[in-house]
Write a structure and sequence with these properties.
AcylCoA_DH/oxidase_NM_dom_sf; Acyl-CoA_dehydrogenase; 2 domains; 6 strands; Acyl-CoA dehydrogenase; 259 residues; globular; Butyryl-CoA Dehydrogenase, subunit A, domain 2; Acyl-CoA_Oxase/DH_mid-dom_sf; acyl-CoA dehydrogenase activity; Butyryl-CoA Dehydrogenase, subunit A, domain 3
C-alpha cells in the first residue's frame, strides 16, 4: 500500500469526522488484503509505506471516494464468517496518524500483541470439554490419557497467561516483545496439541455432526497463523540471548529459570 503526501482538499471532511484535524493529508493507492469486517465499519486504520519505505498508519473513510470493498482473495473455509476480502484503494483520501514507524514502535504494541494468545486459549476450551465428556461417558483409558495431557497443558498455559498479564499490567510502557512471544508460542503449542488429541479421542463425529466444534476445527488453524512459527521462535531466542537479566518476566537470563 503506497502513501503519497496530498493537499488537504477533500480531506477536511475526514478530519472533521474523525477528530484528527492535525493529521497529515495523504492519498493511498494499492490493495489491502484480508480486511475482516470491511463492510461493517465506517472507518479503518490501514498500514502503508511512504516513498522512503517508512511504515505509516493512516485512517480512511471506508465508504468514501477511492475505496472499493471486494470479497476477493479470501478462499479459506476457516473464519469464513469474518467477511474478509481485499480492499482496493485508488487515490483514497487518508490522514496519517503519528510519525513513520510509530505503529510498531509505540508503547503498548506488544502488550496488545500478547492478547491474541488469550483468544487462542479460550477458543480451544470447547475441545477439552468435549474430551472430558467423552471420558465420562465411555471410560476409555486412552481417552483418559489424552484428557490428562490436555488438562496439564492448559493449566501450564493458563499460568503463563496470568503471569504475563500481571507483568503487562505493571509495565504498560516497557518493550513487551519477549513476554508476548513467549506466551504466544506456549499457548499456540498447547492449542495445537489439544486439537490433535481431541481429534484422536472424538473421531470424525464432531467434524460432521457438531456445528460448533466443526467450525472451531476449521477456524482455529487459520487464527493460529497470526503466529509466524519458527521465525517468531528464532527472534525470541535472539532477544533472550541479549537479555540483561533484570529478573522480570520479559527477559530471560539463566537466573530467571529458578523457582
Amino acid at each position: 500500500m503506497q502513501a503519497r503526501a496530498a493537499m488537504d482538499t477533500g480531506i477536511r471532511a475526514l478530519a472533521a469526522r474523525t477528530g484528527l484535524a492535525g493529521g497529515r493529508p495523504l492519498r493511498l493507492d494499492g490493495r489491502k488484503a484480508w480486511c475482516s469486517g470491511a463492510q461493517a465499519v465506517s472507518h479503518a486504520l490501514v498500514t502503508c509505506h511512504d516513498g522512503n519505505g517508512g511504515a505509516l498508519i493512516a485512517v480512511i473513510d471506508v465508504h468514501g471516494p477511492g475505496v472499493r470493498i471486494t470479497r476477493e482473495g479470501w478462499h479459506a473455509v476457516g473464519m469464513r464468517d469474518t467477511g474478509s476480502g481485499d480492499v482496493i484503494l485508488d487515490q483514497c483520501p487518508a490522514l496519517q496518524i503519528g510519525r513513520a514507524g510509530a505503529y510498531l514502535d509505540r508503547p503498548g504494541f506488544w502488550q496488545g500483541g500478547a492478547g491474541i494468545a488469550a483468544c487462542w486459549y479460550g477458543a480451544v476450551l470447547p475441545f477439552a470439554q468435549a474430551v472430558r465428556r467423552a471420558v465420562c461417558r465411555h471410560g476409555d483409558p486412552h481417552a483418559a490419557a489424552h484428557l490428562g495431557a490436555i488438562d496439564s497443558d492448559l493449566r501450564a498455559a493458563a499460568a503463563l497467561l496470568r503471569e504475563s498479564a500481571d507483568w503487562i499490567d505493571t509495565h504498560s510502557q516497557t518493550d513487551a516483545y519477549v513476554a508476548a512471544m513467549r506466551v504466544r508460542w506456549a499457548v499456540e503449542a498447547t492449542v495445537q496439541r489439544a486439537m490433535q488429541r481431541a481429534g484422536n479421542v472424538l473421531g470424525a463425529g464432531p467434524l460432521c455432526r457438531d456445528a460448533r466444534l466443526a467450525a472451531l476445527f476449521a477456524d482455529l488453524p487459520v487464527l493460529l497463523r497470526q503466529s509466524h512459527a519458527e521465525r517468531d521462535l528464532a527472534k525470541l531466542g535472539d532477544r533472550l540471548s541479549q537479555a540483561t537479566g533484570d529478573g522480570d518476566v520479559s527477559h530471560g537470563s539463566e537466573h530467571d529459570y529458578q523457582l
